[in-house]
Amino acid sequence: MKNLYKNHFRNQNYLMARTGINKIYRYDLEKIISKKDIAYIGALGNRKDLETVFKSLKLIDEKFGKLIIIGGTNDKQINYYNNLAEKIGIEDKIRITGWVERKEIDEILKSVKIGLVPLKDNFFNRNLTSPIKIFNYFSHGIPFVGTDLLSIKEILNQKYGLLYKTRNSKDLANKIEVLNEDKDLYLKIVNNIYDFSEQLLWRKRGSKILNFIDEI
Asked: Tens of pLDDT along 188-204?
């Protein structure tokens, strides 16, 4: 987004200040490895690609827990995705919570091993988004698997998770299984996230913005 604005409004000063996090939840690493659930946080709108996620669940080993979908603003949305899960044959592998308060999100994430960021390839997702769900995951040291788009790749930075090819359920399933089975890789990513998350605390974000204002 910063680069997009700089290309069109060149005589301006810009600061990239990522979404902040309230708290870093640190867990015993062996306990983290034993977690089973996968999570998706966010809206169930048409910019997300949950259909590819559902198809990938058909290909994933039964040793995983459930896909917990933290979102859904109304019954119509929730029923649509419950029906889609039934059509694909993975209705027993998902749980849709509906919209919940922030404190409940943190409680759910305590059981989550892998987060998902499934975005469709469109202008908004390529250029304008910075998914807040990523920072929810980072707050709990959770590695994520996201769509191979520049907006996600730039945050992931080859350190905090894995990318999968757009609308490719086999690739998504493979990346989820790699994170689950490669213990050394998983723990390396967890430690990378914990190190990076220190920079994302709200007070540090605030200081960064104030310093920028003082300099212009």
From this structure: 999 999 999 999 999 99
Strand partners, 39: 68, 115
Q: What is the pLDDT of residue 1?
A: 87
CB 137 within 8 A of CB 109: yes
Q: String of b and e for 85-101 (b: at least 16 CB within 10 Å)?
A: beebebeebbbbbeeee
* Beta carbons within 10 angstroms of residue 205's beta carbon: 16
**10, containing H or E segment:** none
> Residue 146: beta bridge partners?
117, 163
Q: Beta partners for 94?
A: 67
The structure's pTM equals 0.94
Q: What six digits make up the tokens of 42?
A: 């966010």
Per the structure block, which two tokens stand in for 108?
């759910």
Which class for 55: exposed (0-12), middle (13-18), buried (19 or more C-beta within 10 A)?
Answer: buried
Q: How far is the CA of 60 from the CAs of 7, 151, 178, 181, 199, in angstroms?
A: 43, 26, 11, 12, 34
In sequence order, the β-bridge partners of residue 70 are 41
| Torsion 177-134-65-74 (CA) sign | negative
Tell me the CA distances in angstroms from 180 to 38, 112, 177, 204, one per residue in order: 10, 12, 5, 32
